[in-house]
Design brief:
Distance between the termini: 89 Å
Shape: elongated
Number of strands: 24
Radius of gyration: 37 Å
Number of helices: 26
Largest sheet: 7 strands, antiparallel
Oligomer: single chain
Strand order of the largest sheet: 5-9-10-11-6-7-8
């Protein structure tokens, strides 16, 4: 009887009587027969059978690296065992056949320690050996199912053979084959980035496609380390230096198409991580080819036609800022203007453009490159990113001396860039003078044209909730197919809000208006916010509400939070005591209150961007008596068009603080045709305000 069948019988397993294993059956096949006959998985079977031999179940989680050094790989693979841990006299070994006496002698002789066995299934031992020992056989097993043409699918266009590279380790066929497989599939799937990430037991390769990470494959650490080394060779990096971050670039050809690779490595606790940015030169298109909506495209071209000033594109990393800027530059590069760029790094090479690569090691920074360019007679300067105060100051100086400066920043919306420029050291007057416009950008996934379904019938619970939140019903639903990787989306569309700095906005910037107030004022002067642009995409069936929620959901939450505050009331009266009493009463009712002493001050407050639900004023004041005041104010201050005004009776001054007595003046002559004003009825005043507020809310 086979030892597995005998052990199963001793353990009293159900079905052990029917377990028949021929004596000459191999170890792996014997375990498979036992598992299938007894209806147990291999790990479950090992856990049950271990006590019948007086052994413990092997725990690979507690495997020690030092134990691997005591047993040669040749012995471990020959006898299908795995060293788990050791002490001064013993070596604990996982085995799938505790009855093999030859194994005990071989391990004792090779390791110089007495072996102590623990039971594990052959599959578990094979997996541990696969991950622990660096061998070409493990790599061959990984690549056995790959097409032989993969090794030739990727051709390195620019390559440098570093002297310190061991060809047997990095340029061996399995490593090249696996690296080319990863690069080819990433490019075919239109990935923008490849992430090669180490872990405690193995590594993972993920692709970023349309802005979302996708799992591609798992790798044993031996394979991952070699692939990272091969990638470093492509990027002309030092493969011997594994303790410092490195950056490099390369160019490869896949199916006749040239692709630039931007490579970055960083050391982690387990091994090196590599990220490869895939840059496609053919992706630099004109503005009308990248999917910008006609209204925003017209406003953007208006900014690009400026002869001087600063135009900023803002948004988070990966939002398409550089692509938009390259498209704008390509459209401007007609040969009639001198265009220069300062970038870190130069992502795309554009014909007819002077492009400078920032390199701090050689003393080439954004700031000194800008200074040098100003002596090169440029018409347009593109600054890859304004990162520090010095760069911001030089960019502003260039804008004030007749150059158009294009730059990028990292902010959430268009007008928040004002606050960012102030943080970088520019004063408000300089910003108001030089800034011509700001673009805020996001990228949103387009529904896959091959599998998207028209939305017919009842909505899902999620669609109903999002429809109520955004005030729009979707036209299509993302389903998923092979062409889109079962995501339901393929390709991306830009969402752009374009703020053109008008004289009114420039005055508000110089006057210290907050970023939120500037954003509201820009919207009132014609800017379509990202939310409205995204909703328009949904109405056209180009994307879904779920995608809007993923990309700009946080911004909508912030906007709802900002808009859900208490109503603001503007109190206009020349009497400070009256204003104090009105403020105390209104703030006690939960309103926000601002004060103005006359019409000029009231218009200044409303022009600052603050939106008032109600204006309480005394129209008997001399400055308010002009009939043209309301219409003039509405023309000058757009926010007043949404503000309700109520007129209070001419009221006497309220008692103020005690003051020194003065000689009494003769009383003024009585006016028989004017009714003597009595004390203010504050209860009636409060009721009037509440009623007016309710009317503005409906």
């Amino acid at each position: 009887m086979h030892w597995l069948a005998a052990a199963a019988a001793r353990a009293g397993l159900k079905g052990a009587d029917a377990l028949v294993i021929p004596p000459d059956t191999g170890l792996i096949d014997a375990w498979e027969i036992a598992s299938r006959t007894l209806g147990l998985s291999a790990p479950e079977l090992a856990k049950i059978l271990a006590p019948t031999f007086g052994l413990a179940e092997a725990d690979f989680e507690k495997a020690e690296t030092r134990a691997l050094t005591l047993l040669p790989e040749r012995i471990a693979r020959k006898y299908h065992v795995f060293p788990v841990r050791e002490d001064e006299r013993h070596l604990v070994v996982a085995t799938a056949d505790p009855t093999n006496i030859e194994v005990e002698h071989a391990i004792g002789f090779a390791a110089g320690r007495r072996p102590i066995f623990e039971l594990a299934s052959p599959a578990a031992i094979e997996e541990a050996l696969f991950g622990a020992f660096a061998s070409d056989r493990a790599m061959d097993q990984l690549l056995s199912s790959v097409d032989e043409q993969v090794a030739d699918a990727v051709r390195v266009v620019e390559d440098l053979e570093p002297e310190s590279v061991d060809a047997a380790e990095v340029d061996s066929a399995p490593v090249v084959k696996l690296t080319n497989l990863i690069l080819r599939d990433a490019i075919i799937q239109t990935a923008s980035d490849i992430h090669i990430e180490p872990g405690a037991k193995g590594g993972t390769v993920r692709f970023r496609v349309d802005g979302v990470m996708r799992q591609y494959m798992h790798l044993p650490m031996v394979a991952l380390n070699r692939v990272v080394s091969r990638i470093k060779v492509l990027g002309r990096l030092d493969i011997a230096d594994r303790i410092r971050p490195q950056d490099g670039r390369s160019r490869v050809a896949v199916d006749g198409r040239y692709v630039d690779l931007r490579i970055a490595t960083v050391p982690t606790r387990d091994a090196e991580k590599a990220v490869i940015r895939i840059l496609r030169p053919e992706s630099t298109r004109r503005l009308d080819e990248v999917g910008v909506t006609p209204r925003e495209l017209a406003r953007l071209r208006q900014l690009l036609n400026c002869r001087d000033g600063i135009v900023i594109v803002t948004g988070p990393t990966g939002s398409g800022k550089t692509t938009t800027m390259y498209s704008a530059i390509r459209e401007m590069a007609t040969g009639e203007v001198n265009i220069s760029t300062v970038e870190d790094p130069v992502e795309y090479e554009l014909p007819g453009i002077t492009q400078i690569q920032v390199d701090p090691k050689r003393g080439i920074t954004f700031a000194n490159s800008l200074r040098a360019l100003l002596r090169q007679d440029p018409d347009v300067i593109f600054v890859g990113e304004i990162r520090d105060s010095e760069t911001a100051q030089i960019a502003a100086q260039a804008a004030m001396t007749g150059h158009l400066v294009l730059a990028t920043l990292h902010t959430n919306d268009a007008m928040s860039s004002i606050t960012r420029l102030i943080d970088l050291g520019l004063d408000r007057q300089t910003i108001a003078t030089t800034l011509r416009g700001v673009l805020a950008q996001r990228l949103i996934r387009r529904v896959c044209p091959d599998c998207a379904q028209p939305l017919i019938g009842a909505l899902t619970e999620e669609e109903e909730a999002l429809g109520a939140r955004y005030g729009v019903l979707p036209l299509s639903r993302a389903m998923g197919c092979k062409r889109c990787g079962n995501t339901g989306y393929r390709g991306r569309l830009p969402l752009i809000e374009v703020a053109v700095i008008t004289p009114a906005l420039a005055d508000m910037i110089a006057g210290g208006t907050s970023g939120h107030a500037l954003q509201r004022a820009a919207i009132s002067q014609g800017m379509a916010p990202l939310r409205d642009v995204a909703i328009a995409r949904v109405r056209r069936g180009e994307t879904t509400l779920q995608e809007i929620e993923r990309v700009i959901g946080d911004q909508v939450e912030d906007q709802v939070h900002q808009d859900s505050g208490p109503p603001a009331i503007l109190v206009v009266n020349a009497d400070p005591s009256w204003r104090r009493m009105a403020r105390a009463l209104l703030e006690g009712g939960g309103f926000r209150v601002a004060e103005a002493m006359d019409a000029a001050q009231a218009m200044q407050l409303m022009g600052s961007g603050e939106e008032f639900a109600l204006m309480v004023t005394d129209l008997m004041m001399p400055s308010m008596m002009q009939p043209a005041f309301p219409s003039q104010a509405q023309q000058r201050v757009p926010s007043l068009r949404h503000t309700t005004a109520i007129q209070m009776p001419n009221v006497p001054s309220l008692p103020g603080p005690p003051r020194q007595e003065e000689p009494a003046a003769p009383p003024p002559p009585a006016t028989p045709d004017k009714e003597q004003a009595g004390p203010v009825d504050w209860a009636r005043f409060a009721a009037t305000v509440q009623s007016s507020i309710r009317r503005t809310e409906h």
